[in-house]
Amino acid sequence: MGQRSGHQERSKNLELAASETMKAESKVQNNKDEAEEPKAKDQRLTLVFGVADLKNGAIGLYNIGQSCCLNSLLQVFLMNIHFTGILRRITVPPCARHKSRNVPYQMLLLLEEMQCGKQKAVSPIALARCLSVHRVKLFVQHDAAQLFLTVWNLIKKQMKKPELVEELSNLYTICVQEHLACQKCSLETKRNSSMLTLPLPVLDSNSHRLKTLEDCLQYFFSPEELTHHNMCFCEQCGRRTPFLQSMKLVRLPQTLTIHLKRFCFEKSANVQKLSHYLPFPQDLDFNAVLTENQCEADSDEKAGWKYELFAVVAHSGSSSCGHYCAYIRSLTEHKWYCFNDSEVCQVLWDDVKCTYGHSNLHWGETAYLLVYMKKRPQ
Ligand code: ZN
Q: pTM here?
């Protein structure tokens, strides 16, 4: 019985795969009809290559001057087959001027160059110039969390098809519910909001180091008392009162990005980097980390809260001067790679663990962004 249904399941999957390809091909056909003067290259760009993320092996990106941050993020985007599946279906801009200014289109060109070329590395200069048109500066060191938000928002804004915008949002967006409760009366307000990353503090309110990623998550979703100068105005009490503020998890996306807040803005003007040891797991089950009270989700949603680590964007150096690289686990090969600008090499999980951090190594590499991928349902 089990075997038979297994066979049925497989053939159903094959049918699905075939119909997906047909759908994609008909979309390519539609694109061809829509475009004024479809060029062979544009058609080839939107063709379906299957789900290979490393068609010609892992390809590096040349550093064009302080572009290690951009390069690392691009590798994380382009190795994500869920993202490239959306990217391949964009509408090709009508003219050269629009093409040069369109971030998703330039990403698609870069992806094609990486997957079709035989070079060890390719240059992201056209995409970097395109971003600079949208006020993303060239030749300066960016903050990876900030640049990720900026690039993602540009991609979303410039994807013309509403269904792709929705898919992109669903792929990356985390939904939470913020609760505020007056501690003097019964007033309680709830507000739903969405975010692109979970910005996790690595220190608690007493500036003590949190010990693991799970501790950081637990702390982030713990209620906080707003007292003294943090009190809020209560409409029911008619004055400023202490409040209890809490955040509940509503929805987690397929691609979950966690931002470890290692850059600390103290009262002084200097930004401090917190390099201490903070381990994170390869497998992360949110149901095992958060309590019932910290969630506002049904059992179907919660059943999907099992994740495995897909990428680590690591930073080495100080807050003012440093370097980024990305460790990414191929979703099709299940092997880890280190993408360090034009240099790419296969690595082991033990190498990735070196980004846990170390208090005595201020130049050492530390994980800054963690990207987890939802596991397939069992
Ligand atoms: Zn009140």
A: 0.85
